[in-house]
Write a structure and sequence with these properties.
By secondary structure, the protein is α/β, with parallel strands linked by helices. Helices cover 46% and strands 10% of the residues. It has 10 helices and 5 strands, in the order ααβαβαβαβαβαααα. β3, α5 and β4 form a beta-alpha-beta unit. α7 crosses α9.
Length: 220
């Protein structure tokens, strides 16, 4: 897939392989808990962290190792719970938009059947906005592990990977310029890589420090 094709809105190729996950101090604990599978308390685990921090990547790593399936909240309904609870399962983005009754029954069924259940969300489960008391009691009792925002080293590595995913060869000087000047978050890294790619493609030029400086200064 070429950069021109990507500019037409085609999806970026994504690798969910374990070897493509960038390990850093802020996510080592989460990866360690995945490696403890199937020795999770009550066969359940919650991963939480800011959008883009790697939760979904780790969910795919775990699902591949456990022979499980990843679903979205929309897939979880009263009429699907029993069928879903027949194998290891990850409910991605579980923090607030799932059917609470269906989620409560899913948690119970997975425990009864001894299947692994991985939940991901942007916040710790105690902060999820479900109002069903029994569900919140189950969620708060689960083992939860957070993924921190990236440090400078990880942010630089994330930027390199994001540029590479877009088939952009970017010099180290661009990465060194961006790291101390953008918000230290995965969301910001994705935003600025996309913005620089779009500007470079529109102007028919490479991503350089000059281009990065212009875009960041224009953003204020």
């Amino acid at each position: 897939m070429t950069r021109a094709q990507l500019s037409l809105g085609l999806a970026l190729p994504v690798s969910w392989l374990r070897e493509d996950f960038l390990v850093a101090p802020g996510n080592e604990a989460a990866l360690g808990w995945l490696d403890r599978w199937p020795d999770w308390p009550q066969h359940t685990l919650v991963l939480h962290g800011a959008p883009g921090c790697g939760k979904t990547h780790l969910a795919h790593v775990w699902a591949a190792a456990a022979g499980g399936r990843i679903i979205a909240p929309a897939d979880l309904r009263a009429d699907t719970v029993d069928a879903l609870a027949r194998q290891p399962l990850c409910l991605d983005d579980a923090d607030g938009s799932a059917d609470p009754v269906a989620l409560f029954h899913l948690v119970n069924l997975m425990r009864e059947r001894g299947h692994g259940l991985l939940l991901t969300g942007s916040r710790p489960p105690a902060q999820w906005p479900y109002t069903l008391p029994d569900l919140m009691s189950r969620l708060k009792a689960m083992q939860a592990v957070g993924i921190a925002e990236p440090d400078d080293a990880l942010l630089g590595a994330v930027l390199v990977k994001l540029f590479a995913d877009r088939q952009l060869a970017v010099g180290e000087e661009v990465i060194r310029y961006l790291v101390p000047r953008i918000e230290r978050s995965f969301h910001a890294a994705r935003h600025w890589v996309a913005a620089l790619d779009a500007a470079a493609l529109a102007e028919g030029r490479a991503v350089t420090v000059v281009l990065a400086r212009r875009l960041l200064e224009a953003d204020g």
